[in-house]
Amino acid sequence: MVAAVRTLGGALVLLPLLMWRGGFHDFGKARAHRTTLFGVALLSTLIPFLCLSQAARSLPAGLMSILNATTPLWGALVGWVWTREPLGRRRLIGLATGFAGVMLLSAERLHSGEASLLAVALVMLATLCYALSVYMVQRRLHGVPSLTVTTSTLAMAGVTLCGPAWWAGLPGAPAATWSLLSPTVWVALLGLAVLCTGFAYDLFNRLIVRIGASRAISVTFLIPIFGMLWGALFLGESISVSMVLGTVVILAGTFLSNQGAPPAGSPLSPRPLRFDKETP
């Protein structure tokens, strides 16, 4: 249900903006890439949102935010395999350090009973999907405006999830009980759809073309900081010393793993895209 509302709500929020910009003629270009767009929808929204929504049922928000910071680590590996970005000694050390931090932090939480192995695996799968989707956008959606990419992929994922979400309804209840959701829940869902999905994804797709895939993924450096902060302020979660140390280790590994990543437009990076007419 959460994934369906996020994706379809995000698409509906962006649709008027797309109409205002006169972007409907770009759907002709998008139709030629419908298979790739659906692949991006699966990797950037559908699978990650399902994984994260399920993992959030048992993992603390602070720990989830730390695990989310592994996206650049996966990005470095995907870039090495897919685009043959150089992976020298420093980047290899960074990858090893980052994943070691994830394993140590996860092992501690698993031992204390604060996390389950399945929940941790779901978050890691989500971050891998994010990394794959970034490179798919950069490599295969040449000439498709970012707003069209974002709206199309969110709509595809949302429509795909609508049936299962309506059938499932609330846990243990028929679909008709959607009407029983409290106003607080709807406000939270709309916030996820509008701010954290619609506008955030459009901004991120613009970032990919401006600075390249590897560097764009590095925005996840900020997720642990805000995730632990909001978890402490709004959910009453504690910020332990091990969480802070684990964050430092993962971010250090992520920083090293992205050293030497080619910027957008360099000879080692894929051909830069033209997502928007105003993009330089």
Q: Let me know the average pLDDT.
A: 79
The fraction of residues in strands falls at: under 5%
The biggest sheet, with number of strands, parallel, antiparallel or mixed sense and barrel status, is: none
What sort of overall outline do the alpha carbons produce when their principal axes are compared? globular
Secondary structural class: mainly alpha
* Low-pLDDT residue intervals, each spanning 5 or more residues: 264-280
> How would you spell out the order of helices and strands?
HHHHHHHHHHHH
Helix content: over 70%
Number of beta strands:
0
H/I helix tally: 12
The tally of structural domains comes to 1
Structural commentary:
There is one protein chain. The chain has one domain. With 280 residues, the protein is an all-alpha fold. The radius of gyration is 19 Å and the shape is globular. Helix content is 71%, strand content 0%. Helix 3 (34-55) packs across helix 8, helix 4 (61-68) packs antiparallel against helix 11 and helix 6 (89-112) runs antiparallel to helix 12 (241-257). Mean pLDDT is 79; it is low at 264-280.
Could you write a compact summary of the structure shown?
The protein is an all-alpha fold and 280 residues long. It has helices at residues 2-20, 27-31, 34-55, 61-68, 71-82, 89-112, 117-140, 146-168, 183-211, 213-217, 223-234, 241-257. It is built from twelve helices and no strands.
